[in-house]
């Protein structure tokens, strides 16, 4: 949240956080299935 607050002044922290969370493996089936698994995991905890 702090990175978003200061992003209007300095966006480097926000860019670093997003870069670490993104992947270039868009055609990787294992990565795709892992994303689906995680989405169900979050739904179960509601």
Bin the helical content. 55-70%
Could you say which structural class the secondary elements and strand pairing correspond to?
Answer: mainly alpha
Using only CA atoms, what is the Rg?
15 Å
Mean pLDDT: 83
Low-confidence stretches are none
Q: How many beta-strand segments? A: 0
Characterize the biggest β-sheet.
Answer: none
Helix-strand topology string? HHH
What global shape is seen?
Answer: elongated
Number of helices: 3
Oligomeric grouping of the chains: single chain
End-to-end separation: 22 Å
Characterize the structure shown.
- It is built from three helices and no strands.
- The model has no long low-confidence stretch (mean pLDDT 83).
- The chain is mainly α and 46 residues long.
Task: Give a quick summary of the entry.
This protein is mostly helical. Helices cover 67% and strands 0% of the residues.
Structural descriptors:
mainly alpha; 67% helix; single chain; 46 residues
Question: Could you give the topology of this structure?
Answer:
Elements: H1 2-6, H2 12-21, H3 29-44
């Amino acid at each position: 949240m702090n990175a978003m607050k200061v992003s209007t002044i300095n966006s480097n922290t926000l860019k670093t956080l997003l870069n670490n969370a993104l992947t270039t493996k868009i055609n990787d089936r294992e990565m795709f299935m892992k994303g689906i698994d995680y989405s169900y995991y979050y739904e179960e905890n509601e």
